[in-house]
Amino acid sequence: MTERRTIPVYLSLDEAAEAMSVSVKTIRRWIASGTLPAYRCGKRAIRIKLEDLEATPRQIPAARC
């Protein structure tokens, strides 16, 4: 029996921002800080693996008392 491999799903910066409910600028910040791995496809396109995006820790806003 052959082993079944899964193909990773890649998202654009806009799609990643929408999925995480943040701005594209925040996604770019996470990439620059090393929090979120990203991959260049061609000269300009940047893509993010869905599994990397799901594994990115998110800060919980502090409650004000």
Which descriptors apply to this entry?
3 strands, single chain, 15% strand, three-stranded antiparallel beta sheet, globular, Multidrug-efflux Transporter Regulator, Chain: A, Domain 2, Helix-turn-helix domain-containing protein, alpha+beta, 65 residues
Task: Give a nutshell description of this structure.
By secondary structure, the chain is an alpha+beta fold.
Structure description:
- The chain has 65 residues and is α+β, with helices and mostly antiparallel strands.
- The chain contains three helices and three strands.
- The chain has one domain (10-55): Multidrug-efflux Transporter Regulator, Chain: A, Domain 2.
- The chain has helices spanning 13-20, 24-33, 50-55; strands spanning 10-11, 39-41, 45-49.
- A hairpin with a 3-residue loop joins strand 2 (39-41) and strand 3 (45-49).
- The N and C termini lie far apart (60 Å).
- The mean pLDDT is 88.
